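Milestone M4 deliverable, item 7.
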Amino acid sequence: MSEDLPFEVEKEETALDHFTELRRILLWSAFFFAIMFVTFLVFMPKVLPLLANGYKIVLMGPLDVIRFYTGVSGALALGLTTPFLGYQIWRFVKPGLTPTESKVTLTYVPAITASFLTGIAFGYFIVFPVLFKFLMNLGEKSFDVLITAREYFLFLLTSTLSLGFLFELPIVMVFLTSVGMLTPVKLKQVRKYAYILLAVISALITPPDFISQILVLTPLMALYELGILLSVVSFKKRQKRVEPAIT
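Output delivered:
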């Protein structure tokens, strides 16, 4: 009984160290989010004309200004905080990784950032203009359309930020393959279910028309197929690392 006491004490100290480190990660991530939030909030009057794309946008009341500024700033800050949080998580798990695993895992941080920004760009320059112009033309045939700031930027953020996160799908698939949680065979087996899920997601983030949903669903399906191809490469590399360790 007494021999197990040092082991129990060491185990509790290790758990406490992990909890302290995790708390530090959350605090630093919250601090980074706050900095980004304040930065976007300060420069929002200069950012808004760029996002408005020449449309005349109105507010329905004085409190809408506060809600609008904080909502847009919070959404943008959350998007930029995600890569930072990914790097902090990598630092947290790094001690339990081999040098090779640590190096491989670190490469996913810039990959996630690049994928997120690519999704944002795709949503802002392709999906949003097409969908918004289509809906405006549809409405102006029968009504005098008044564009409120809340509806405009909610639609803008939905069609950009959501695509930013969805464009990270191949990176997530490759990462899960590299750590042994997924295989290319499994990804191919669940392909039809993944397509159904992606179809539901595209329906949720687009207006209820066929053209809009196809415009978003097509690149998502292509991203899934890209994820499978990259998963095959990652799986082969993992097999090469695991086989020498077994022998």
